[in-house]
Amino acid sequence: MSYQNDPETERERLLRQLFARAEPRPQPPASDTEQIRQAVLEEWETVTGRRIWRKRAAFGAAAAAALVAAFVYVGGGPVPTGPAPLVAHVEQVQGVVTTATGARLGAGSGVVAGTRLDSGEGQVGFRLASGGSLRIAPHSRVVLVGSDEAQLLAGALYFDSEDQRSAEFAIVTDLGRVRDVGTQFLVRLDDERLDVGVRAGLVNVTRGTRSDTASAGERLVATQATNDLRRDSISTVGGDWEWAERLAPPFDTNGRTLGEFLEWFSAQTGRTVVFADAALERTKLPAVLSGSVRDESPMQKLSAVLATNGLTYVLDGERVVIRMQ
Hints:
Structural class: alpha+beta
C-alpha cells in the first residue's frame, strides 16, 4: 500500500520529516526519560483519541523520545519553544484529578512546569522535584508554575517543606503572595478571602504594600474589601488539616522501627507523641515492625500499628499518649 493511500502511514512520514528538521535539545536525565515518555504518550492519546503510536511500538518509542527532546508539556495553554522541566510527580491521588487538557493523573505521573490542574471531587499529593510535599484539596484549581512556585486560582492546598529544601516555595493568588520559611502551612482561596494557616515554622504573606509573617498556630487572612492582613489563631491538629493528612507521603512500616513510624506520624499530624512511662518507651521505640499498613489515614495507621504491638493510645489535647492495651 502506498503512503498516499494510507493516512496513518502518511502522518508517520510527515512526523519523521518534522523531527528530522528539529534542532538538538538538551536531553532529560536518564532516570526521568521513561517516565516522561509515558506521560507524553498518555497525553497524546487523551487529546487525540488515537492509538496509532501504541500499534506501531517501534515508531512510537522514537516519536515519543523526539517529543521529549523537542517539547514536554501536559498543561494547558501555548506549547513552549523549549523543553518544559519536570517539576513534580504524583505520590497519591484519590478520585479523579485532571489537567486542563483533560489528561487524568495517576500515581507516578510526571507533571511539567505550567500544568494547570482541576481536582474536582478528587485530591492529589505531589513530590516536588526541588523537595517537599504539595497537596491539593478537592474543588481546587492550581497551576504548577515550577518546582518552587504554584498559582492557586481557587480552593486549598497544603505545603510541607520536610526540611529538605534549600529554596523557598511560593504560592501566588489574586489576594496575595504566600512564601514559606521552612514550614507546614495551608492556603485557602475563594473569590473574597485568602486564608493562610501555619502548622509549623514561619510563613510570609504579602498583599499590596502590606507584608506580615505568621508562626505555628497562627493564621493570616486577607479579603477583597480591605488591604489589611488580619491575624488570628488556628489549631495545628484536626479539622482544617485532615484532608491533607489523607494525602500523607506513603510510609511502609515493614522492617522499620516503631520510633521511625511515630516520627513520621507526628510530622504528618502535628501531634506530639509521648509514652505513658519511660520504661515502656525504652522497650517499644526500638521494636522492629513487620507487615505493611496501606491506604489508611495516619490516625488509622497508628491504631493498627500499635495494636499489633500490644499498645493503644489516648488523645490528650494535641498529644498522643501511648500505653499498654
